[in-house]
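Researcher: Please predict.
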Amino acid sequence: MRRFLVLLILAACGTAAEPLPEGVLAREPFTALLTDMTLTEARMNHEITSMQIVRPPMSRYYADILRAHGTDSLTFRRSFDHYAMRPEEMKGIYDDVLERIRVMKDGALQADSLAKDTTFATDSSSVRNR
């Protein structure tokens, strides 16, 4: 009986994840796509609020993103619906999206800081050489 329970537990732990339905993106490509869409939505909000653009070309932006990711709107919709039916997995995907954006922001801030430091070093060395 004990062997049976051990085998049952091992079998349950080794169960593979359910295969994705036809036309649904795997988690990684879907996460990358959502990251780009989130950044694009931020861009559109910036254009509306700061640049006074009343109607940014949203459909063109989304079409460009889908094309860049080698997919289409139907596949995106199927993928979104698939993950939306799995709230814990969707939360994990959005957590990954936010982390990617945070890393991009930190990298940009660091690059900006390094550029300023380089400028300062160049400026101060030229002052010393006068």
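Model: The two ends are 89 Å apart (CA to CA).
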